[in-house]
Prior knowledge:
It contains eight helices and six strands, in the order αααβαβαββαβααβ. By secondary structure, it is of the alpha/beta class. It has a single domain, classed as 3-Layer(aba) Sandwich (Rossmann fold).
Amino acid sequence: MTVTAEIQALKEAHRKTWASGDYPRVAELVTDVGERIVERAGVRPGSEVLDVAAGTGNAAIPAARAGAHVVAVDLTPELFLAGCRRALDAGVEIDWITADAEDLPFEDERFDYVLSSLGVQFVPRHEIVARELLRVCRPGGTIALGNWAADGYIGRFWTILGPYLPAPPSDALPPAGWAASSTLRSCSPITRCS
């Protein structure tokens, strides 16, 4: 199997995993992460916002409540029904689009804010998705991600669980890799696109 075929198989496995069970209930446990991302990013009324790997809208909904026009994308459209219900309950409108974070279907420099609440960390190739986030962010815009820390409870859990899971493709990184100091190097948690 080629790396591309391995990556596609991994993405399909991820999609099926997120579509199974009751992920929307789990997402309710971490809605505060999306709210904090929107607050820290400083989302403004009238701005264009993209929530990548949006799930049920934990960043999209508070961004829309802040008065932004929001597009939410996810590889797992099965989550959109719960997201639409949550948006309706919040009194906001969001455009929900099925899309791969490694190949976003938007023109360059479209969004003022590009956000992800515990989402893009699960995309297998972090470098590719990071380039996509930068590509769709306007000059002077903001990229803000909430990710599990490698040395936190969830990161340590994955470290323990990792040896018992199928080996990922050679160019895939673990979810907590986004928060590893070697990955972040000199990046701040909020990135201003320039």
